[in-house]
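Incident log entry.

Two folding requests arrived from the same account within the same minute. Monitoring flagged them as a possible duplicate submission, but the sequences differ. Recording both here for audit purposes.

Request one:
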Amino acid sequence: MDSLTLLLDGFATALTPVNIAYALVGVTLGTLVGVLPGIGPAMTLALLLPITFNVPPASAFIMFAGIYYGGMYGGSTTSILLNTPGESASMITALEGNKMARRGRAAQALATAAIGSFVAGTIATALLVAAAPLVVRFAISFGPEDYFALAVLAFTAVSSVLSRSVVRGLAALGLGLVIGLIGIDQQTGQARLTLGIPQLLDGIDVVIVAVGLFAVGEVLYVASRLRHSAPDVIPVGRAFLGRQDWARSWRPWLRGTALGFPFGALPGGGAEIPTFLSYAIEKRLARGPGKEEFGKGAIEGVAGPEAANNASAAGTLVPLLTLGLPTSATAAIMLAAFQQYGLQPGPQLFDHNPALVWGMIASLFLGNAMLLVLNLPLAPAWAKVLHIPRPYLYAGIITFAALGVYALNASWIDLIILYVLGLLGYAMRRFGLPIAPAVIGLILGPMAEIQLRRALAIGAGDPTTLIRSPIAATLLALSLLILLLPAARHLLRLRRGRAT
C-alpha cells in the first residue's frame, strides 16, 4: 500500500468521534500547560503521561500528538508575553516577540507564531508521510549490530549536542544507563541494583523517571529561583495579521519550515540550531521596515524561528517512528509513552500496528487545525493563565505529578522513587548536567544491551562482528567523529591562540 492510502486509513482512525475528542483534549491540555512559564513540551508530555495509562493505544497517541504540538504552540505565548522561553528553542521567539509585544504588537506576534506554526506543522507532517515509508524500507535490513550502532550514535549525538560539554553529557548518559540496569537481567535472571527491594525487580517504570527528572526536577529548580513579584504580563487582544504583516511573514514561514524539518530528523539536531539559523537568515534577508526593526521587534524574527521550531517537531518523528531513535528530549518522552504500552517504534511498528501509527500521523493534521482555531481567537484567555501565582502553580504541578505516578501501581515506593529522582533532576540542573541524555540512556540502554548480546552471540563472541556490517561501521564511525569533534575544535583554538 502506498503512503497516501495508508494516510487515508489513518484519517479513518483519527476522525472517529472518540479520537476527535481525544485530539481536542490533547491540544487543549498541551497548550494550557505549555503556556505556563518555565514549562516546555518535554515537561508537558512528562507531566501528562500518567493520565493516559488506561486509554486505548490509538486514542492515547492521538492525544499525545495533540499534547506535543500544543506544548510547542503554548511556548510561544509565554515567550512573547512574558519574555520567559519554556525551552532553548523559544529563545529567539522571546528575543523579537517580546519586543513586538512591548511596542503594542503582541496580537500580531502571537498571530504570526500561530499561523506560522500551522503552516510549518502541516508541510512538515506531509514530508513525514513521504519520508517515513522510505526510512522503514531501509531499516528492515538492520541486524543486531546495526541497531546497537544506532543506539551508540543516539547516545553520543544527544550527549554532545544537548549539553554544554561532552563530559557533562556523557555523565548524564551514564546516570540514565545505570538507572536502566535496575531490575532482573532478561537473559541471566539475576537481580541487578535492586538493593533487596522487591518492587525494583521489574525495574523503575520509565513514566516515573520521566515525570521525576523532567516535571518534579524542573519545578524544584524553577521554584528555587522564584521571584515573589507578580509577573509582568503584557496585555493582548484578539490575535490577527494585517495585509503588510502577511506579506512580511509568509516567506519566513516557508524558509523556517525548510530548515526545521531536516534538522529535527538528524540525531541530536533538535530545534535550537534551525531556529538560530532561521533568525540569522531572516536578519540578513530583511529589507525596508524589517531591516530597521530587527533587534527592536521584527515580525520576521518571530515568523521564521517559530516555523522552524514546529517543523523540527515533525522532523523528530521520522527517526522516532521508523527507527525507534529519539533525537530530542520531547522525542524521548514520546518513546517512553510507546514503551508504556509495550510497543517499540521501528519498522515492525508500521507492519504490526499500521492503524495506530498512521492514525497518529493523520491526527497531526487534525491537531494543527484545532490549534489554529484555539490560538487565534483565544489568545487573551491563554494570556490570563500567566497570572496564576507561581507558588500555587508549582505546588499544583508537584501534587498532580504525585497523583499520576501513584495511580500507576498504587505503590508508596513509586512516590519515594519519584521524589528521589526529582531531587536528582534538580541537582543535575543545578550543576549543568542535561536531562535528555539521562532519559535516552534509560530508554535505549536496555535495547542496546540486548542487541549487543545478540550480535556477539551470532558472531561467537568475536568483537569484530560489530563493524562487519557497512551500516554499523558507518554509524560507529559517525559516533566517534561526534565525540572527537569538540576535542579537535579545542586543540585548533589552542593552536590559533599560540600562533597569535
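Request two (distinct sequence, not a duplicate):
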Amino acid sequence: MKTPLPLRAIAAAVCILALPVSLPAAASAPAAKAQPAAAAAVRRYELNTNIVDGKMVYVDAKGQVNPTLVAKTGDTVEIVLSSGEGAEHDMVIPQLNVASSKFSNSSGKVTVRFKVTRAGSFVYYCSIPGHRQIGMEGKLEVTGPALAEAPAPAPATDKSDAALALYTPAPSPMRGPDPSAVSVAANPASVPAAIGQRAPQLLKYRMETVELPGKLDDGTSFTYWTFNRQVPGPMLRARVGDTVELTLFNARDSKMIHSIDLHAVTGGHGGGEHTQVAPGQEKTITFKALHPGLYVYHCATPLVPQHIAAGMYGMILVEPEGGLSKVDREYYVMQGEMYTGRPHGAPVHQEPSLEKMSNELPDYYVFNGEVGALSKTHKLQAKVGETVRIYFGVGGPNKISSFHIIGEVFDKVYSEGSLSSIKHDVQTTLVAPGGATIVELKMEHPGSYLLVDHALSRAGKGAVGVLEVTGDAVPGVYHAGAHPAGQSH
C-alpha cells in the first residue's frame, strides 16, 4: 500500500504585458464584451466499496479503483455510495467540509451532494479507523476560477496530511447501557482435551467473528468484536506436526471486515493476509504447526489495535511430541485492556476512544473480557493436593502484564509460552502484549487466591480473578496466629 504524498498547493502567476498603441484622437478602443460564464453542471458519480488485491477501496462503474473525480468550480458534485462487500464505511473530504453518513449492507445507498467553489486537488477517504490506511483514498480534482463566495484557501503546509488524518466525525450521543447486552466472558475451564501421544493429523477448525453488545461491568455495556461470541476467542489445541485447516466466517450482520493472525503460523502474515473476510463471507487457510508452545492469535484488520481492544484475541496451544505432563486441572485466562469514551464504571453504553488507545491510557483492565469475569461470572476451582495449570496470555494491545497469584508461588513457569525450558519457584512472571506463559502450581492450602496483574492499580480497573481451593489444610503450611507448640527457634 502506497503512502500518499503530502498535499502541496501549486501557485500560478500570469503576467499580461500591455504595449502602447497610437490611435487617432477621435477614435476610441471598443469596449470588451464580457464572456458568458460556463454553465454549472451536476457531476454525478456512483461508487461501491470492495476488497481488491487485499485492500479496501472505492470502485466506480467501470471497475476503476479509487477513481479520480473531476469537476469545475460552480459544479454540484453528487456521489452515490454503497457497500459492495457489506462492511460499514463513509466518505469525507475535510478540505471542503464534506462528510457522508455511514453506510453498509443494512443502510443501503447514501448520497452526498455539495457545490465546489474553489479549484484544487482534494483528498476523499473513509474515516472509519484503519480504512484509509488500507486503501480507501482517492482525489477530487477541481479546475476553474474560484467563485466570489469561496473562502480563501488556507496556506499550504507540509502538515496538510496530518490535519486530514486527525479528522474525526462527531461523537455518538451518550446512551444508557444496552439492555440486550450479554456476558462475553469465556469460561476459563473450556480447555480442549489433552492430545498426548499420537501421530500428526489433519485438524479442522471453524470460527465465526461476531459483533455484539456485551456486559463490560455492572450497569455498563460495550460493543465487543469477538471470535465465537466470547473473549478471549476459543482456545485451539494441536500437536507439533499437525496440519490445521482453519475457516473464518464473518457474521452477516457485522459492520466491519475481520481476519485472524495466529502467532503459531509461518507465512501469510500468520494468516492475516488471506483471511480479510467481509460480512457474510468466509475464507480458509491451511498451515502446519511447526513449533511447540502457547501462542496468541488476534484480528489483523486495520485499525489492528482497535480490533484487539474490542476483544478479538485468543490462543492456540501446540503440544510437543508426547504431549504435556498430566495435571489435575487446566484453565484458560487472557488479559486485555479497553479504552472507552466515558470513565471507568460509567452507567452507559461505552464507545471506544481511539485517542486514549493511541496514548495508551486504558480505562479498564480485564481478565477474559469483562470486569468480574473470573470472580462473579466464573471462578477457577481446585482442591488441596491438586496441581493446576493455567494457560495465560495477553491480548493487549499495548500493556505488559505482571502476572501473579496472591498467596501462592508458581512451581513451574514456561516463560513466553516456550515449552523448551522451565523455571521453578517464580513469584511474578512478565507477559508481553501478544505473548503468553504457562504456569503450574500445586495447591497445599484451602482459601481464595487472587489472580492479579501486580501493577496493582489495575486491580481497581477490573484485573482481578479468583481461584477457590477447598479441602483440608496440609499441616504446617500455614496457620493464622502463633505456632501451636508455642516454641521459637
